Amino acid sequence: MSAVTAGAAPRASLSAGHLPRWVPWALLAFSMFASAVLFTVLNTSGDIAEFNIAGTVFVGMVVYIGLIALTSSLGETRRHAVDRVMTTLVATAFIIALLPLISLLYTVVVNGIARFDGEFFSFSMRNIAGEGGGAVHAIWGTLLITLGATVISVPIGLMTAIYLVEYGRGRLAKAITFLVDVMTGIPSIVAGLFIYAVFALLFGAGTRMGIMGSLALSVLMIPVVVRGSEELLRIVPNELREASYALGVPKWLTIVKIVIPTSIAGITTSVMLAISRVIGETAPLLLTVGIVPNMNLNMFDGQMATLPVFAYMQAKYPGLPADAYFERAWAAALTLILIVMVLNLAARLIAKIFAPKMTGR
User: Fold this and answer.
1) Sign (positive/negative) of CA torsion 287, 291, 297, 300?
2) 140 to 96, 111, 216: CA distances (angstroms)
3) Could you give the C-alpha distances from 72 to 35, 47, 131, in angstroms and in order?
4) How wide is the angle at C-alpha 340 spanned by C-alphas 339 and 341, nearest 5°?
5) Are 70 and 19 in contact (CB under 8 A)?
6) Quick one: how many helices (H) and strands (E) in the chain?
7) For 115, which DSSP code?
8) CA pair distance 25, 197, nearest whole angstrom
9) CB 233 within 8 A of CB 165
10) What's the pTM value of the predicted model, to 2 decimals?
11) CA distance 261 to 195
């Protein structure tokens, strides 16, 4: 028995034919290092600010794909090599998609932090020429106009989605769906021109008010709310509706108590996507709201200032010194990004609080 055991072939290890775990990471580090050296040599100015980080990451990933394919082909099977290459391609696509966002955030923060001070959030541009001043009037204008657009859009969009999912049948529902799809891709300038034309017919040419901006933004928000809410209402299981009907609950109460609470988290996210879609619009607000250097909180009387238009005017028509105007424009862009971030965090918190609690037995 011992002779048979001694003469038996050794068992194959389950890890045979696999690269050690540290090899892919070592190849990735080497690829990024080689790419960084290449771009350092190409950076003839020697300025660290001019170093191309995005190009370094992209070239490094391309080099890594070649190295991991070659190494895996030599040390593993062809199937493992193809799997590693495809995994790396997916990761590279993710990084390429992420690079513009990171670059945008980095640029806005670096250029906008210079004027991110107390004066910027407590002063308007009234009687300000050159340095100083702030955008408190534009911040309040953006919040009020966006709030007005949300109050108009969310009830209309949500009830339209409920109609399409729960009641809509036949040609009318198909026509509404088609029109909503068309409105989803409407240019923002068209919405602004439409509202401006309507108010020009009613109150005369040159009329500009905050409520006009809210109406223009609501034209852009409603289709987004409808499409997002419709898809989320459709994924609510029919068993929940049927159980409610079996208990004698009417349809409208089933929608209010069962369907909407079940999908409230997704609906909230859909609303936030719609707000994020319109809060940075410039063209419709420039047409319907205009711009003023002082604070105006009355949405039904006179022009108002908004952050997108404020940033546009500061960058488009700089005075002297020009750096002060560009700094205010970048600070307004950074403030707008932070507002969107805070709103999204608040939406996630609201969705988490009001989402139905799943309890196990």
Assistant:
1) negative
2) 36, 22, 18
3) 21, 38, 60
4) 90
5) no
6) 15, 0
7) G
8) 61
9) yes
10) 0.77
11) 34
| Lookup: tokens for 130 | 């050159």
Name the residue type at position 45.
S
Residue 17: helix, strand or coil by DSSP? coil
The dihedral built from the CA positions of residue 173, 179, 185 and 188, taken in this order, carries a sign that is negative
User: d(Cα 257, Cα 239) in Å, to the nearest integer?
Assistant: 14
Cβ–Cβ under 8 Å, residues 105 and 337: yes
Question: 308 burial class (0-12, 13-18, 19+ CB within 10 angstroms)?
Answer: buried
How open is the CA angle 129-132-313, to the nearest 5 degrees? 60
Would you give per-residue pLDDT tens digits along the chain (361 residues)?
A: 444 445 544 443 444 567 788 888 888 889 888 888 888 887 766 666 566 777 788 888 888 888 888 888 888 778 888 888 888 888 888 888 888 888 888 888 888 888 888 888 888 887 777 777 788 888 999 999 999 999 999 999 999 999 988 887 878 888 988 888 888 888 889 989 999 999 998 888 888 888 999 999 999 999 999 988 888 888 888 888 888 888 888 888 888 888 888 888 888 888 888 888 888 888 899 888 888 888 888 888 888 888 899 888 888 877 778 888 888 889 989 999 998 888 888 877 877 776 666 554 4
Structure tokens at 274: 């719609």
Look-up: residue for tokens 């009318």? 172
Q: Tell me the domains of the chain and their CATH numbers.
A: 19-115 (no CATH), 136-354 (1.10.3720.10)
Closest CA to 329 of 357, 361, 307, 347: 307
Integer Cα distance of 217 and 279 in angstroms: 8
